[in-house]
Design goal:
globular, disordered N terminus, two-stranded antiparallel sheet
């Protein structure tokens, strides 16, 4: 059951910043590590190759996944960090922003899933958990 706040006797959903964050997958963590390594390698104590090998993933595969995930991830970050005065048609803009963010995140997920064995128990568990989260608020 999702939390809500009231505004003029209408229930509004809590902002997403108030919801519990799900634990990211190790693969997402590795991709984030690669992105940091490409922008500021001095921030890291370990390189992507060592982390990939420790996780049982080929460094070459991790590099390819990171390259494919960069553009959609950048789009998602730009959408989340948009600044400025809200336009007058705020409801339409918020819906459009959410749609663009969802599309960018789906692009990232689609690019990653092309390289993940779908018959893996871990993948099945993640898909079932995602399906349950989507249908939890219905």
């Amino acid at each position: 059951m999702s939390k809500s706040i009231t505004n003029h006797n209408r229930a509004l959903p809590m902002p997403s910043s108030h919801s519990r964050a799900e634990k990211p997958t190790p693969l997402l963590g590795l991709i984030a590590l690669c992105i940091v390594h490409r922008t500021s390698p001095q921030w890291l104590r370990t390189g992507p190759s060592e982390a990939a090998k420790a996780s049982g993933i080929s460094p070459e595969r991790l590099s390819r996944l990171t390259s494919r995930a960069l553009a959609p991830f950048e789009t998602a970050v730009v959408t989340l960090c948009r600044r400025g005065r809200p336009p007058r048609a705020r409801a339409n803009d918020e819906t459009r922003s959410e749609l663009l963010l969802c599309r960018a995140l789906l692009d990232v997920a689609q690019a990653l899933l092309r390289h993940v064995p779908m018959r893996s128990a871990t993948v099945r568990e993640a898909v079932v958990a995602a399906w349950r989260r989507l249908h939890q608020d219905e």
